[in-house]
């Protein structure tokens, strides 16, 4: 039941706030533009093939209105925490030091992230996620203005 509720909430979130994803079936023309808002969506453990087969019409809308990557690959080890820290920091596991999903509560991300960089330029940032592993690590990340784990939203 919890999985169905989480899946439904994720679908609603995707529908309401996604900037876009582009399929390989569409012609892509790179462009430079300024975006007032950026939404980064990561669905842990979900391949692009499953997403395309499950929501083809929705994905087409995202593709036509945003940026995407169908060729993104995970890091090694391909676990939730190392992969997400690499994604938001742009560095490999050996550089950020998170080598597994287990970490002491006092662990901090020691490299700049998209959130800390945006914050240093005065940009408001927020996260919404379900994983309590990420909740602990993101709570310690400076530069996060609002963070939400599940349904609780709190200011920091």
From TrEMBL:
<dbReference type="GO" id="GO:0016787">
    <property type="term" value="F:hydrolase activity"/>
</dbReference>
<dbReference type="Pfam" id="PF01663">
    <property type="entry name" value="Phosphodiest"/>
</dbReference>
<dbReference type="InterPro" id="IPR017850">
    <property type="entry name" value="Alkaline_phosphatase_core_sf"/>
</dbReference>
<dbReference type="InterPro" id="IPR002591">
    <property type="entry name" value="Phosphodiest/P_Trfase"/>
</dbReference>
<feature type="signal peptide">
    <location>
        <begin position="1"/>
        <end position="24"/>
    </location>
</feature>
<protein>
    <recommendedName>
        <fullName>Phosphodiesterase</fullName>
    </recommendedName>
</protein>
<keyword id="KW-0732">Signal</keyword>
